[in-house]
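2024-03-11 09:14:02 INFO worker-7 job=invfold-0412 stage=load source=structure_tokens
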């Protein structure tokens, strides 16, 4: 936090050294504040429903003007991270799964506690779905999942396309279960799943090729078990996949 304050003070007082200035000169003071508050929400330092400090107090803590703080808060409100209640204060919003990635470009921040809860839900639904898909799948379902895998592989280097193909695979798997209620549930969750898939692919693509390749292999193992109608194998392959993705994202959040 002290480092962020130092950067903000340097911007306002124009006392930053030349190399440091090159690093921050394209950012406004309000953008630095917004990014810091986003980080606090993302890491769970500030919890959903919690009230933020007043504009005056934040301005004092960051050693900036109140107008800069107001501009940062307006940016956070625009993407749904906070709610400003007249006469009451500013509150961190509880997560709304319906608009997690609509559109992805808005980069709705997922806090660590929210992410962990999401993976609890995914393990409950998708692990069982993989078993059921292995039992009930038809040839057309296998072909749909295989097509999604081809698109995922072809999307190497493009996390946006990779995310869409990833969602397509999981929806095709849900369709293979033959359970209409489960299919509807997965469709409702598709945007939410898409955001975590987008994040895991973005992290993998910009960390190392080995991690990206692992994602592909894990999906292939799931498909192989389903194609062979191996219910237990599909169950285990899906569980391992979700645990690995969860660990990847958790490590990123802990940075």
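2024-03-11 09:14:09 INFO worker-7 stage=emit residues=255
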């Amino acid at each position: 936090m002290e480092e962020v304050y130092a950067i903000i003070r340097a911007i306002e007082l124009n006392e930053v050294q030349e190399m440091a200035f090159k690093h921050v000169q394209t950012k406004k003071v309000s953008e630095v504040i917004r990014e810091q508050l986003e980080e606090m929400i993302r890491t769970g330092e500030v919890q959903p429903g919690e009230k933020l400090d007043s504009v005056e107090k934040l301005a004092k803590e960051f050693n900036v003007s109140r107008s800069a703080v107001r501009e940062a808060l307006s940016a956070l409100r625009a993407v749904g991270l906070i709610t400003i209640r007249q006469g009451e204060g500013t509150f961190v919003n509880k997560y709304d799964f319906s608009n997690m990635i609509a559109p992805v470009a808005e980069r709705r921040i997922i806090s660590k506690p929210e992410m962990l809860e999401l993976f609890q839900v995914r393990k409950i639904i998708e692990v069982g779905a993989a078993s059921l898909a292995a039992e009930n799948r038809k040839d057309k379902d296998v072909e749909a999942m295989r097509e999604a895998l081809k698109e995922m592989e072809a999307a190497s280097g493009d996390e946006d396309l990779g995310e869409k193909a990833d969602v397509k695979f999981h929806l095709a798997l849900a369709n293979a279960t033959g359970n209409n209620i489960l299919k509807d549930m997965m469709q409702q969750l598709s945007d939410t799943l898409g955001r975590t898939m987008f994040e895991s692919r973005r992290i993998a693509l910009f960390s190392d090729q080995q991690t990206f390749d692992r994602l592909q292999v894990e999906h292939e193992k799931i498909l192989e078990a389903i194609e062979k109608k191996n219910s237990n194998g599909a169950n285990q392959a899906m569980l391992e996949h979700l645990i690995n993705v969860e660990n990847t994202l958790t490590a990123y959040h802990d940075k």
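2024-03-11 09:14:09 INFO worker-7 stage=report msg="Residues 180-205 form the longest helix (26 residues)."
2024-03-11 09:14:10 INFO worker-7 job finished
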